[in-house]
Design brief:
Length: 265
Amino acid sequence: MSGTQQPRLAVLVPGGSGQLGRALLDAGADEGDRIRVRAPGSDELDLTRPGAVVEALADLAAGAREAGRLPVVVNAAAYTDVDAAEDDEDRAFAVNVDGPRVLAAVCSSRRVPLVHVSTDYVFGGDADRAAVGPYGPDDPLRPRTAYGRTKAAGEDAVLGSGAAAWIVRTAWLYGGGDTDFVATMARLEAERDTVSVVDDQTGSPTYAPDLARGLLELAGRVAAGDGPARSVLHCVNTGTATWYDLARAVFTGLGADPDRVRPCG
Ligand SMILES: NC(=O)c1ccc[n+]([C@@H]2O[C@H](COP(=O)([O-])OP(=O)(O)OC[C@H]3O[C@@H](n4cnc5c(N)ncnc54)[C@H](OP(=O)(O)O)[C@@H]3O)[C@@H](O)[C@H]2O)c1
């Protein structure tokens, strides 16, 4: 899109206190006055409380109308603790399925488009996949974890809502907090002589600020009615790595010896 065609946006980002939510807030600020991002945390906008969702969308629509902006929602809220979800799938379902279902329904009734973020965990992650190449948006879903099941069901709920809704699946996010994998490896480099890191999973590490910029560009297109009403996209940084490769890259980037990272299965 050329600069003159870019719409002025009012963007609501549920999950604003999370890694991606904060990156979206920063990416919006980088756009100056063109994009206004409101990014409430779950304390302010809890997607499992339908009344709060209705109220937030009413505020978004009214504020956008008054300011002459196009309203759009980018949903960065999710229950993301993969291990904890195995023990509390009901809670993960409430946040990852019921919440997005309500959000999409209210978006639909207000005619506000929705960009909903999802994950590679909706796929099976089969060992022979590397030979076939990356998953495509139309590949069959075969989640193997509670988290993946809830995220897959959340996609269905959003796509079945009638809202103008885009699903954006991403993977291996880093660069938005103190606890992501890259930050953890940087901390361990300072604390330990060696670290053991699994070498049997391959993915596309994705810098959260890059994804945030792409999501806001997509939000602008969706808000302007540019493209189909509903679609599923994959959005990651280019290249692939194992967690072991990524840890070595972190050590190298810090000027440390990458051989202090040991592969494990
Ligand atoms: N991190 C990754 O590697 C990765 C990879 C692929 C896809 N994704 C997807 O990317 C999106 C963003 O993930 P992230 O890494 O930014 O996760 P995150 O850092 O864990 O942030 C999740 C956000 O969701 C909020 N949240 C939790 N329950 C909520 C509720 N009931 N209502 C409203 N907000 C709620 C959290 O707020 P509180 O902290 O206040 O609870 C937090 O702000 C998610 O859809 C995730 O599935 C992430």
